[in-house]
Every structure is written in C-alpha cells, then in structure tokens.
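Review this:
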Amino acid sequence: LLEINRELEMSNDELQQFTSVASHDLKEPLRKIQFFGSLIMDGAALDEKTTVYLDKIIRSSQRMSQLISDLLSFARLSEEMAFTESNINAIIEDILFDLELSIREKGAVVEVQPIPLLQVMPALIRQLFQNLISNALKFTRPGIAPQIRIWAARAGKDHVNIFIADNGIGFDEKYKDKIFTLFQRLHAREAYEGTGIGLTIAKKIVEKHNGRIAVNSHPGEGTTFVITLPAQQPGNLLAAHNSIAFKSHHT
C-alpha cells in the first residue's frame, strides 16, 4: 500500500509538472496572436469585414488563454497545501482592491461584514472568493447596479457559514447542481463571457477545506452562495479563533 501511495504521489508530481509546462507552451503562441493582432488592428487601415474577422481572432485567442489558465488552476487543486489561520476579511479586501475598476464601471455596492479568522489555505480561499465576487459583478441585470453582500454566521458548534449574495440575473434552481459541473454554462457566451470552470474550481476548493457549498437563486432575483467551513480543521494543530462577534442577517 505504501508503494502504491508513493507511485501515486510521483504520478501526481509528474502530472503537475506536465500541466505547468504545457500551459506555458500553449499560452505563448496565443500571446503572440493577441499581440500582433492588436498591432494590426491599431496600425493598419482595414475594411469593415477584415476588422470584424480580426477582432474574432483576438477574442477567441483571449478565451483560449483564459481557458488554459482555468484548467491549470483546476489541475493545481490536487497539490498539498498547509492550513493557516487567516483573516478572511483582509483577503476579501485585497480582492476588492484588484476588482476596483470593474466595481466602479458597474457602479457596484459591496458590503462586507466581519468574518472570523479561519484555518484555510489562503491562496485557494482567495481564488474562491475572487471567482464568486467576479461572477456577481458579471451576471447583472441591465440597468441595475450590482449589490453584493458578504457576511458570516455560525453553523452549529463547529462550523461557520459564509454568505455571498447578489441582486443579479439569478437562475432556475433546477440547475443548481449543474452549475458546479466542469464546462457547464447556463447562459450564451455572447451574453456573458466565461469558460464554465470557475464554479467547479470553487466547489473543489471548498471540498479541499472539508466544507461544502450550496446555492439559492431565482431568475431575476439574484443568487446567494453559502459556503460552510470548519471553525477548526480536523487534525490541524492551530487552535480555532472566533473572537469576532457575528451579526444577525437574513436572505
């Protein structure tokens, strides 16, 4: 059994190395397509039809580049990482700083309530919230400024629920299991860009934290994601620290 485990670890390491190299080798020609395509668009006198075709080439290469990045992120979820007692509010604050331009352009209002320190893998938790907040900014109703609320509440003695709610387009709840499946999309790419991997990654990240993720939504009424995480990770040497008081909220 130990020998099998060692072989599996070696196979995983080799797969990670291959994925990283393949990602770099695939993205490099795409960067050149985007770069030279943009040069032609900006510097040449093109007729309308040629401009449309060239724009499609550039956009397609951008989508492929994003798809490769998302697949690499998905593959990296198998890597072993340590749990660290982390300030979730600080992580979210950094994400909002990075998304500042998009938030301003959309006229979005983001409200974040105190969340207790939790034992997490910081890089993965950042990616989790980045995906969910970005989705809330993306799937908006025309003419309505996005409103995003993030808060936490105790879930029994040993767990914490974190809620991410928006006032976006929502979706029929009969699809709520489907949205976490790889490459699944509920909306046409022409209306909302994306690769169909983000929520799959989100679910894998939560599961890697011994947690679970659920979603409530209705068309035209927004979406609420509920992330349930342990207050203290099983077998982790760090003591759980939940000194921040919770406030009562309703969705």
User: Anything to note?
Assistant: The two ends are 48 Å apart (CA to CA). Strands lie at 84-86, 109-112, 118-120, 147-155, 159-166, 212-217, 223-230. Residues 188-192, 237-251 have pLDDT under 50 and may be disordered. Residues 84-236 form a domain with the Heat Shock Protein 90 fold (CATH 3.30.565.10).
